[in-house]
C-alpha cells in the first residue's frame, strides 16, 4: 500500500539499478545460449562424429541450450517488470508533485497525509457564494488528482508484487517464445506464464462475455478508435497469429511516442552505429485514447547507423489476470465485465493472446 508521503518523497534510483542489472544478466545468458548452441551442440556436427552415440549425445545436450534461452527470457521479463514499474512510479510521483505545486501556487497548505487547507479568504470572498464554490471545486480537483496518483502507484506496487513470484522457468513459456523479432523483446508478460490456451470448455457466462467484447470492438470502431478495434477483433478471432503494425503511422498519430523516440536518439548522437536496446513506454489516455486502448504499455527499440535508424515496436496483446487488478470494463447497453472474465476467453479457446510487432526505418 502506497501512501501520500511515501510517494511524494520516494527515490527510485535503486529500482532502476536493479532493472539494469537484470537486463545485463539477460544479455549474458543470451550470449551463453548462443555460444552453447554454436560450439557445444553445433560442435558435434562440425567434429564429424556420427552414429547412434553422436545422436544420443546431441539429444542429451540440446535441451540445455533451450533452458539457457528460457532463462534469458525470464531475466528479460524481470528487467521489464522492474523497469516498467519504475516508469509508472515516476509518472505517478510526477502527477502528485504537479498537483502539490499547483496547490502551493494557490497558497493551499498540503499536509503530509495529503489533506488540503485553503488559505484565509478575504472578506469579499468569504461572503461571495461563487468564490466559495470556486475554492471548493479547486480543493476537490486537487485532492482527486493527488488521490489518483497515489492509487496509480498502489496499483503498480500490487502488480509488481503479483508478477515477480511468477517469474520461475518451470511456470514460463507454455506457449513457446516469440520468433519473428530481430532480437529478444524485454517483455513476455508474467501474466502469460502458465496460461495454456483452449484447455477449458466455454460456459454460458463465457459466451455472454464474448458477445459483450464483440460489442466493445464495434463500439471502438464507431468511436473512431480503429487500431484498438482492429486489435481486439484479431484477439477475438482466436488465431493467435502475430499482428504487424506500421510504426511510422503509430508515430504520426502519437506525439508522445515521437518525443520518446527523440529522447532516445538524443542519447546516441554521432555518426556511428547505435542500439538503444529494448525500452518500455506507455501511451497517455489523456492525449490518445485509440493508442491507449490498443496498447497502453509497449516496448520499443531504436538502432541504426549515423543518420539512418530503425524503430521496432512490440506488444503482447492480452487482458492480464485477477492479480493485476485491472479495472472492469463498462460497455454501453451491455453492462460491465471484469478483465479476468475477458482474459478467460483465452483459456477456453474462444479468443487468443498474440504478439504485436512492427519495424520502420527513418532518418534523423
Protein described:
With 364 residues, the chain is of the alpha+beta class. It has 2 domains: 4-175; 204-363, Beta-Lactamase, CATH 3.30.450. It is built from 11 helices and 10 strands. The protein has helices spanning 4-9, 13-47, 52-105, 123-126, 129-163, 204-222, 226-237, 247-253, 255-266, 289-294, 339-348, and strands spanning 109-110, 116-117, 243-244, 273-275, 279-282, 297-305, 308-317, 329-331, 335-337, 354-363. The strands form 3 sheets. Strands 3, 4, 5, 6, 7 and 10 form a 6-stranded mixed sheet that branches. A two-stranded antiparallel ribbon has the order 1-2. A two-stranded antiparallel sheet has the order 8-9. Strand 8 (329-331) and strand 9 form a beta hairpin. Helix 2 packs antiparallel against helix 3 (52-105) and helix 8 crosses helix 9 (255-266). It starts with a helix and ends with a strand. 29% of the residues are buried.
Amino acid at each position: 500500500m502506497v501512501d501520500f508521503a511515501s510517494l511524494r518523497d520516494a527515490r527510485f534510483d535503486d529500482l532502476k539499478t536493479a532493472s539494469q542489472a537484470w537486463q545485463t544478466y539477460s544479455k549474458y545468458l543470451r550470449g551463453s545460449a548462443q555460444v552453447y548452441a554454436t560450439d557445444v551442440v553445433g560442435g558435434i556436427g562440425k567434429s564429424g562424429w556420427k552414429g547412434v552415440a553422436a545422436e544420443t549425445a546431441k539429444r542429451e545436450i540440446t535441451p540445455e541450450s533451450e533452458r539457457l534461452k528460457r532463462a534469458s527470457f525470464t531475466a528479460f521479463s524481470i528487467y521489464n517488470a522492474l523497469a516498467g514499474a519504475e516508469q509508472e512510479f515516476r509518472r505517478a510521483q510526477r502527477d502528485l508533485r504537479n498537483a502539490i505545486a499547483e496547490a502551493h501556487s494557490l497558497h493551499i497548505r498540503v499536509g503530509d497525509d495529503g489533506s488540503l487547507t485553503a488559505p484565509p479568504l478575504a472578506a469579499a470572498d468569504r461572503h461571495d457564494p461563487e468564490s466559495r464554490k470556486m475554492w471548493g471545486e479547486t480543493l476537490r480537483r486537487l485532492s482527486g488528482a493527488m488521490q489518483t496518483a497515489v492509487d496509480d502507484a498502489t496499483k503498480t506496487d500490487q502488480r509488481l508484487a503479483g508478477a515477480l513470484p511468477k517469474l520461475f522457468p518451470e511456470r514460463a513459456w507454455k506457449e513457446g517464445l516469440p520468433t519473428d523479432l530481430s532480437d529478444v523483446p524485454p517483455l513476455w508478460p508474467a501474466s502469460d506464464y502458465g496460461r495454456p490456451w483452449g484447455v477449458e470448455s466455454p460456459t454460458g457466462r463465457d459466451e455472454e462475455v464474448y458477445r459483450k467484447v464483440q460489442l466493445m470492438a464495434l463500439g471502438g470502431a464507431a468511436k473512431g478508435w480503429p487500431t484498438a478495434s482492429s486489435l481486439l477483433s484479431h484477439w477475438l478471432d482466436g488465431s493467435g497469429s502475430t499482428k504487424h503494425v506500421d510504426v511510422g503511422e503509430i508515430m504520426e498519430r502519437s506525439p508522445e511516442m515521437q518525443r520518446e523516440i527523440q529522447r532516445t536518439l538524443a542519447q546516441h548522437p554521432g555518426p556511428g552505429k547505435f542500439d538503444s536496446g529494448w525500452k518500455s513506454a506507455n501511451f497517455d489516455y489523456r492525449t490518445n485514447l485509440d493508442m491507449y486502448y490498443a496498447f497502453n504499455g509497449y516496448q520499443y527499440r531504436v538502432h541504426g547507423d549515423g543518420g539512418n535508424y530503425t524503430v521496432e515496436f512490440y506488444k503482447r496483446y492480452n487482458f492480464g489476470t485477477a492479480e493485476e487488478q485491472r479495472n472492469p470494463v463498462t460497455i454501453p447497453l451491455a453492462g460491465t465485465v471484469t478483465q479476468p472474465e475477458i482474459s478467460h476467453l483465452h483459456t477456453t479457446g474462444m479468443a487468443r493472446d498474440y504478439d504485436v510487432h512492427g519495424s520502420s526505418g527513418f532518418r534523423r
